[in-house]
Amino acid sequence: MGLHYLVWASILIISFFSMLQADGATRSALSACSSCGFYALIVYGNISFLYPRFYQEKKFVPYLLGAVALLILAGLGRGYLSLYIRNASFAAAPHWLDPWTHVTFLLSVTTVFILSFIFRLAMAYFELKQQSEKILLQRSQFELRLLKAQVQPHFLFNTLNAIYYEAYMEAPQTALLIERLSDIMRYFIDQSTKEYVLLTTEIQFLDNYIALEKMRIKPEPEIIFHRSVDDQRKIPPMLLMTFVENIFKHGIDKISGNNKILLSLYEKDQHLVFQTRNLLNKHADPRQGHGLGLNNLRQRLMILYGKDFDMQATEDNQYFTASLKFPLT
């Protein structure tokens, strides 16, 4: 903000001194202030209102119409205000604006508008660059934390495999759970650091996680998982996990045992849609909220997709519902 003030002060001073010799101090000061005021209207009207609301949303016709209206308002406003100041304070006889003067004022504000548009494009470029650097930094930090957590992973997998074969002879169900746990850990180490993973890999990860969670809940919750997708498509890893984890963390009623979970995964208009619905946990601790995991997911989606995603979470008297929609690659 301090830089903005410095720039406008510089423009004001330059305008004042450029007119000082011909118009005198008072008239030059008034003209410089009025010009800067209308220039500021154009610049901030474009970069703070028209550009984000219309141009960024690809509404080019409303953006063009808004730009024309802004230019006419600013150009004619600047012209007639200058005329009023001149006639009211400095002219011996009234003056009027001729057609060429109208054109001159409109051309001057159009030039300012074009410069403001170029400036806003530059701002968008640097914001995108900063966002990309933030993604790279977060990815590096995530990979570093993961590397720190990978303490002899092959030893751990070999141990789990040995336990699996021992358990398979005596307790096949336990052996199956050990296998699922091994698959989950392998996913964290081999897949979660990648930029994209196959959808079939992500779905298998969810299936394994759900199976392990069901094991510790008695009676087992009723879980229905509908899926209608091309499982060879790719998505960033761990995007679907937050909704499922949120259900088992906050939505399981261990007192009544009445738990029903509906999951739905499908494609629509080149987007992946993931919806979850579970009965409200009437005995949940009111001090625990649903917000942290969902807020972190929203921030990650904004980094990955900007505004090209939709994420909602609602609840009524009976159900908690969450939905996520983002582009497929």
TrEMBL record:
Every Signal transduction histidine kinase internal region domain range: 143-218
Parts of the chain that traverse the membrane: 32-51, 63-85, 105-126
One Pfam family cited in the UniProt record for this chain: His_kinase
Matches recorded under InterPro entries: Bact_2-comp_sensor_kinase, HATPase_C_sf, Sig_transdc_His_kin_internal
A GO-annotated cellular component: membrane
Keywords for the protein's UniProt record, in alphabetical order: Kinase, Membrane, Transferase, Transmembrane, Transmembrane helix
GO molecular function term, any single one: phosphorelay sensor kinase activity
The keyword Kinase belongs to this UniProt entry's keyword annotation: yes
Tagged with keyword Kinase: yes
PANTHER family per the UniProt record, alphabetical: SENSOR HISTIDINE KINASE YPDA
Name of the protein in its database record: Histidine kinase
Species per Swiss-Prot/TrEMBL record: Chryseolinea serpens
